[in-house]
């Protein structure tokens, strides 16, 4: 969104990314890629390594973690050095870090102003705070956490993530129903997210099981996969639940879906049910933009996005009775879910437009650049 919408007469954006090559080619122009940097060992590898630790806590677990950290430094050093050299060659005016600590290292080594995008709050936020010129937070929920960890509130800019614009042609329902072997008149509830425990697919299935008999037209799509291999047992748990509750004909596991906005446009209801506080909840704004009615967990940032009863419904996903009642009320009332969907789509277009978001990011860059110029001028005067 940023590269597509930013004023290129004022800014020259260059990307360092670890995305897969296919995503890079589809998302960016070749001239926008400064460096493709993919660590040999990353956070997913660390998570898998820690699972093999024979103890849950104590000195041995810390040693176990240090062993991985040491191996990662050695394995990643050649690629890291090449990336740092490329950044040093162009010497950007600003380094904007969305994820990973490599950008922090580059900013410190090259003494370049750092913009740190808060998608969550890590334990070492104080160390980052000492290096960052400003923080961009994706939600008030994350901003509040950052302040609690010692970041000054005046250094944080609340800029919620943008919602992609649904510009494709109207979705042919028949194409999607045939793809997943669904009845044309089915009321489709899609749960979209990685198949990891905290995303709450199990809670959704429990709620769906409670309404399945009363609403025979309802079908559930579990959209997503455990693409990083975090928890291979959890997808099996979900499938076993479906089997045990005799929901095999009512629940479809789609796996990873690339054209997710089209799937959401085809769905009647999109469900978000994270059982831990969500930093933002991009699925929610995507669904709103796509024109689906939304049911979301009232944990974390979703309460900033969804106005209960106006642009969607908020539920406690750990309360199966409340969750099931919300789902059933929308399945049985087409007019109401369409009303919520229209209101949500209007808010997505007005409040979360990529154009508005890019302007706010550009204003943050302008402020950081001006501060850097003033700081250099003050340094020259002092000398």
Describe it.
The chain is of the alpha/beta class and about 375 residues long. It is about 50% helix and about 15% strand. The chain has 16 helices and twelve strands. It has a six-stranded parallel β-sheet with strand order 9-8-7-10-11-12, with helices on both faces. A four-stranded parallel β-sheet has the order 3-4-5-6, with helices on both faces. Helix 11 (about 260-265) crosses helix 12 (about 280-290). The longest helix is centred in the N-terminal third of the chain and has 32 residues, at about 60-90. It is globular and about 70 Å long. The two termini are about 40 Å apart. The mean pLDDT is about 90.
How does the helix and strand content classify structurally? alpha/beta
Strand order of the largest sheet: 9-8-7-10-11-12
Which radius of gyration do the C-alpha atoms yield?
A: 23 Å
Q: What spatial form do the alpha-carbon principal axes imply?
A: globular
Intertermini distance = 42 Å
Strand content: 5-15%
Low-confidence regions: none
Task: Give a short account of the largest sheet.
Answer: 6 strands, parallel
Measured as a percent range, the helix fraction is 40-55%
Element-by-element helix/strand order: HEHEHHEHEHEHEHEHEHEHEHEHEHHH
- Overall mean pLDDT stands at 92
Overall strand count: 12
Q: Please report the number of helical segments.
A: 16
Oligomeric composition of the shown chains: single chain
